[in-house]
Every structure is written in structure tokens, then in C-alpha cells.
Design goal:
Helices cover about 40% and strands about 20% of the residues. By secondary structure, it is an alpha/beta fold.
Length: about 300
Amino acid sequence: MKSLSNIKTFVRVAQTKSFVEAANVLSLSPPATSKAVAKLEEELGVKLLHRTTRSVSLTNEGERFYEVAQRLLEEMDDLVQELKDTKTEPSGRLKVSMSTAYGRMWGTILLAQFRRDYPQISVDLSLDDRDVDLAAEGFDVVIRVGELADSANLIARRLFLDPLITCATPEYLERYGRPQHPEELAQYNCLNFRNRKTGRLVPWFFTIDEQIERRNFTGTLTIDDGEAVGQAAMLGMGISQMPGFMAINALTEGKLEEILADYRPPEVPFTALYLERRLVSPRIQAFIDFMVLKGAIWAVR
């Protein structure tokens, strides 16, 4: 096609159902508006509009063409705006869903740093572990624990890796001894985490003889909240296996000690999901890049 102007004119006529009103919106004369639509019909080889002296309506072909043309013009407008935005400082509202435990412990700290770097971006943060419909709920970015794959309309970006730490308080280890092998945990009180979605106990993972092994251990306390399991460990109630982001402060302060470090399992990925677009919004790209760089700045090594 020689120009988009004829398509834009047709779309406006279809929306207003009037050549006169469309001409006023487009700052054209009614004859010029009619001529533009006629040229488009000639180029397509189909009639798009039924014209009478009193009304304008779409033909069957016109309805089909209008639906596609309107969507394409909207996408083009969005693309033009995003290209303009790349030349300026990222700004606007960013709606983020973040895993509950990670968000509570580090979300506000990270967002304070992010806002200092990007003061023109406002953030709406939701802490949740459920499956989120980004498009329907208006989320720009969803951050979850685990390796997530691209889907039909979503892009998955690995942000960082976090270790699983098996640990207990120094007092507990002094009283009951320090296990030297994962199999010895059967002799200790192991604090278990129950997954609310499945109702099952989350297994413990270790690397034994270069193989990833999963184990289940009994204990006197099972909780369906990971943070509460961590608190129970810090109270000296038993041995726990928890994410590094939950353990780091207590490890640094000496409230917890890592055990079985030689048997650490592979690190767990944190992943960001965002809607697939031809051009990612600068504010979304800025946040994802920030999380790749700073999201695991306190990670256990």
C-alpha cells in the first residue's frame, strides 16, 4: 500500500459512520475523505462501505478489514509512543507481582533502590504466590521462584539464582550435634514446609555423589508458610532447609549456622514474566535489568 493515510481515513469513517464527521476529526474536506476511501477500495478491489445520502455502513468485507486495521493502527500508535519513550527517562506506573516471602523480606528494600535510580516510575507491588493473568489483571512484571518457560504470549527472563541452605541455631547444634551427611538428618528434628497448593510436604534436596537427591524427613513441626518455618528454626526448634534470601540475615548475625554445605543442591532460579511485545516498555526493561543486577545482591555464596 502506498500510504497509511487512506486506511486511517477509512477507520475514522467506520467509527463515526459519517464522511462529514470523519472529515472534521481529520481536518480534511468531505470530498477528500470520500476520495481517500474510494482509493483504498480500488486498491483492495472490494467495496468497504455502503453509502447513501443519509448513512454509511460497513460491508461484510469492510467489517473484516476494519477489525484488523483498527488493531494494527493501535499497535502502531503504541510502538511510536514506546520509541519516543526510549529517548527519555523511563516513567509511568509499573505494576509488579512478587513472591510473598521474597517480597516481604527484600521487596521494599529493592524498590527503594529502584525508585532512587528511576524517580519517574511509580510502583504498584502485590505480594502473592498464585498464578497471575498478566493481561487480565494489568500486571507488567511477575516474579516467581523456579524455572519458568516462555508461553504463547509471555516472555520468561531468569533474574538470578539462590541457594537452598540447610541450617539450625548454634545452640541446637551444640545440644544435639552436627550431622555430617544428609542421611543422618533422620536422627534429628526436621522442620517441614507443606505446600498449600498441593497439600504435600516439600522434599529436601541435596547433591550426593554428583547426583541431585530428594529426601523426606519426619519432625515435630510442619507449617504451610515458609517464613514461619524459618522463624521456628531461629527459635531453635530444629533443622530447616530454606532459601538463601530467607537465611542470609540470620547467617550473617550468627543466629543460624549452615550445615551440610558440601551437599548443597543446585541453586534455585528466580524468574520474571512479562507480556510479549514487539518493543518492551522502557520502565519494564529498566526494572528487569535492575532485578538482574541487584535482585540477589544479598545472596549467600
